[in-house]
Amino acid sequence: GMSVGWHADDESLFQGKFRDITIISISFGVKRKFELRLNWPEEGEELVTEMMLGSGDLMTMEGMAQKHFMHRVPKEESVQGPRINLTWRWVLKHSPQCPSQ
């Protein structure tokens, strides 16, 4: 199965490391594991939280999640079949050349 490694959606145009943001994601197709990992876990805290995203599941990552967590879709050899994920992010920091300025 396909995978996406550990990352945060922290590109400067989304401002996720500096202010509260919302990212919305919807999955279609085969069910996949989604994992969140704290960047700086305290003693006794769980390192990784996992959930299953099935077809039609809507997920949000809100607030300062992109500053404090990384996320991934891990490789799962036993999972076969198509999956599409659509993700909405809002551009909050526009460049001087941007027509929205």
Automatic annotation (TrEMBL):
Pfam family, one: 2OG-FeII_Oxy_2
PROSITE patterns to which the protein is assigned, alphabetical: FE2OG_OXY (PS51471)
BP GO terms, sorted: DNA alkylation repair
Domain Fe2OG dioxygenase as annotated: residue spans: 1-92
Extent of the signal sequence: none
GO molecular function: dioxygenase activity
Assigned GO CC terms: mitochondrion; nucleoplasm
Family annotation (PANTHER family): ALPHA-KETOGLUTARATE-DEPENDENT DIOXYGENASE ALKB HOMOLOG 3
Name of the molecule in the record: Fe2OG dioxygenase domain-containing protein
Organism: Zooxanthella nutricula
